[in-house]
Amino acid sequence: MHEARELASFRGDDDPSLVAAALACRVCLSGRIDWALEIGEFDGQVHCTCRECGDRRVVSLTSDQTLRLSLRRDHALEVA
Fold this sequence. Notes:
Elements: E1 6-7, H1 16-23, E2 33-39, E3 44-50, E4 56-61, H2 63-70
């Protein structure tokens, strides 16, 4: 049985706080996550791990979202 993939809910040109909120923990709602970007040929996915509760998930990304996160690799995402 395949696990359903979550789709990211931010646009490529959204404010950074909206990007961070879209990737916040779905279990405890913490914005303190570690993430690793995996880039495919046409799109990507981000592997998220919550620093508070340890929940892990993979979020599918469009090409615009992948580009957005690839430009932010060295910066933490912060929820305002």
